[in-house]
Amino acid sequence: MLGRGKCNADLEFLIKWNTFSDEEKNKKYSNFCSHEVNLFIYFKDPQYFKAVVRPFLENKMEKSFIDFWLLSDYEKIKHFA
Q1: pTM for this model (two decimals)
Q2: How far is 78 from 52, CA to CA, in rounded Å?
Q3: What is the DSSP letter of 37?
Q4: Higher-pLDDT residue of 6, 28
Q5: Measured distance CA(38)–CA(62) in Å, rounded
Q6: DSSP H helical segments within the chain, as ranges?
Q7: How does pLDDT run across 13-23, given as a tens digit for each residue?
Q8: Positive or negative CA dihedral for 61, 66, 45, 31?
């Protein structure tokens, strides 16, 4: 398709995210972990976010703005203003 990059095709699995088992979700998350996927999971699967993504983000050595936002660390976000 025109206008569709490899990245968009790679993330098509998100359309079926809610049909995956926890094991399948873990495999997909491990292979495609990104800010985009983290945001998707934050809004579409809060239980998985709380159980898997949040602990991962909390333990990242170098966090970005979006990481701080997803963690609700508003004090750190102020440093970006």
Answers
A1: 0.85
A2: 26
A3: H
A4: 28
A5: 16
A6: 6-10, 22-32, 35-44, 46-48, 54-58, 65-70, 74-78
A7: 999 999 999 99
A8: negative
Rounded mean pLDDT of the chain? 91
| Closest listed residue to residue 71, CA positions, set 60, 61, 57 | 57
The pLDDT tens digits for 44-72 are: 999 999 999 999 999 999 999 999 999 99
C-alpha distances in angstroms, 20 versus 29, 45, 48, 74, 75?
A: 11, 12, 12, 32, 35
User: Degrees (nearest 5) of the Cα angle 33, 37, 38?
Assistant: 85
Closest CA to 14 of 31, 64, 78: 31
